[in-house]
Amino acid sequence: MFFLLLSACTDLEACIMETMPLSYDAPELVVESKEIQLHKVLEGFPQVTDIQFFPKETNLVLIAQKEGQLSLMNLSDSHISKRLIEIPVRTAVELGLLGVAIPPDFKENGSIYLHFNPKEGERRTEVSEWTLDIEKGTLEKKRILFELKQPYPNHNGGQLLFGEDGHLYLGLGDGGWRNDPLESGQNKKTALGTILRFQVDKDDLIPADNPFIKEEGANPYIWVYGLR
Q1: Distance (Å, rounded) from C-alpha 212 to C-alpha 197?
Q2: CA dist., res. 215 & res. 182, Å (int)
């Protein structure tokens, strides 16, 4: 009975957050240092969640927006842009298209990686691999690397980034609500509240030197745990 009540509370709390989300007012930007100057590069991209430069490029970038838009932009000419895709995503509270990563060997394989919350099905995190053709401006999904059910619509975000070792790192929040009610932060059986590490150049996505790969019951993708 306790577990049924706990589950019901989790669903109720999540429903409250999605229907009556907290409002966040962005603070006014104040630059006091005379050594720093700001120059407008582009505009017209509301709710940007990530901007990633292509390897060895200083102007060519991918811009991700919370509501699912992913655009290709040349910062040297703001008129040169291409909306690659608009992914159907959940957008309540802290859900949406949350991150994009470009591997160091992009020119060889044409792959990019996206972190988002799909609109269809249960509320969850998805990290997937896509093939991008810059010349044609096309983007096609290749495979899903990772999926995880999300108990709440907040604390879903986290950076998606390639490390110097060539592996893909994903930061995940503890799952949401307040005070980590599911105690995910110290639980190595869940991927919530962790940084995960993937080797995307092999069929087996788990690097052999991940620290908890031999620990019984631990999620083998975990690189660091205990995060908010």
Answers
A1: 11
A2: 21
